[in-house]
Amino acid sequence: MTRYAFLAEWADPITEQIRKFTLCFYEEGSKNYVEMIDNKLKRMFLKKTEILNVSLQDIYIGAQVNVFSRQLSITDYADESTRKTLSNKQEHTLVLVKNEGIDGLGSVLNSIAMDSSLGIAKAKMTHLDHGEAQQLNGSGGGLVVAIDVVGAGAVAKVQDLFGSESVSVSENAANAQREITYIFDKSCGAPTVTMGSNSTLCLIKPHAVSKTGDIIETITNNGYRITALQSFTLDPTSASEFLEVYKGVVPEYSTMISEFTAGMLIALEVTGVEGQTSFRKLCGPSDPEIARQIRPDTLRARYGADKIRNAVHCTDLADDTTLELEYFFKLLAEYGL
Questions:
Q1: Strands (DSSP E) found in 198-283
Q2: Strands 142-151 and 225-232, how do they pair?
Q3: How far apart are CA 273 and CA 20, in angstroms?
Q4: What's the first-to-final CA gap in the chain, in angstroms?
Q5: What is the percentage of the chain residues whose pLDDT exceeds 90?
Q6: How far apart are CA 144 and CA 142, in angstroms?
Q7: Max intra-chain CA distance, the chain
Q8: Model confidence pLDDT, tens digit, residues 274-320
Q9: Residue 269 contacts residue 197 (beta carbons within 8 Å)
């Protein structure tokens, strides 16, 4: 049995206070367990319990982790043993895809995904002015996609992957920390979402985030452009608000909430001819098994697992397009979820 300890915070929706915990994570063979200790009260909050939807790779400083419907923010290691063991294995670095490289964004993400020791901690598309660009290594400003990559030896591995003029990377771990903190501050950069008449929302669900590169390549190969992108980690309240239209309508509503809060998801504004109508066809039937039978080239047929974990959410009704885009790229982006 291996034990790791982290400091975590939880915004209690009832008391509207920030509660601080020690989150202990245990690896026992193929099973994972967690326990939580209330740091203020100095007593057990959650006894050691098996957890299915969280792995050690999901828990790092700055991560948002869903533990039994509680959205925890990981703020630090809780002991020196965990720090010594994991600090090098959870190194962060910044990948900055510049305007001239955004058409190849899917390929960039696939290159990162090929190394199983690397993961995406967060990502966003933004427009940098000249002054903001000066704070970042190798950026000339304009439209960029910033990707926070985490994993063992991330700085060196990413440097080996990218070296073109269209993709810049952090020079070292110290620069990476500064650059990531800077660019992912909500005050940095200008939003790129267009809310255009030919735009629509696509959400890459948590189970499919590892396939984001493939999904984006499929979307762009079908003639669409990605005009906004941002990662989010939803708490149950946000997920319930967004999916409220399905409450009492589909029997899978509660499991839909569970999937939307299972980890990070990627929100995309997809723009193309007849945006919402045509993109919904590209997504395919909601059940991937049916999609594989009648629409095998659709996103859900290619990347979905089952009716809940069906790879992507897309806007069902044209009248809802602006509402759904605003929910993610204005409301949630403002609150920094």
A1: 199-204, 225-232, 265-271
A2: unpaired
A3: 48
A4: 33
A5: 85
A6: 6
A7: 58
A8: 889 999 999 999 999 999 999 999 999 999 999 999 999 999 999 99
A9: no
Can you read off the two tokens belonging to residue 93?
């670095």
pLDDT tens per residue across span 99-129: 999 999 999 999 999 999 999 999 999 999 9
- The burial class, CB within 10 Å (0-12 / 13-18 / 19+), for 196 is middle
Q: What are phi and psi of 321, to 5 degrees?
A: -60, -55
* Placement of tokens 């999916």 in the chain: 243
The residues pairing with 4 across neighbouring beta strands, listed in sequence order, are 25
Please answer whether residues 330 and 198 qualify as being in contact, where contact means their C-beta atoms are separated by less than 8 angstroms: no
Q: Going along 129-259, which residue ranges are E strands? A: 142-151, 167-169, 199-204, 225-232
Cα angle: 92, vertex 98, 104; to 5 degrees? 95
Contacts for 314 with CB less than 8 Å, ≥ 6 apart: 200, 201, 202, 203, 276, 279, 280, 283
Cα distances from 31 to residues 1, 19, 49, 50, in angstroms, run: 10, 27, 10, 7
User: What is the rounded CA–CA span in Å between residue 219 and residue 311?
Assistant: 13
Beta bridge partners of 50: 33
Partners of residue 46 on adjacent β-strands:
36
Task: With 0.85 as the threshold, say if the pTM is over it.
Answer: yes
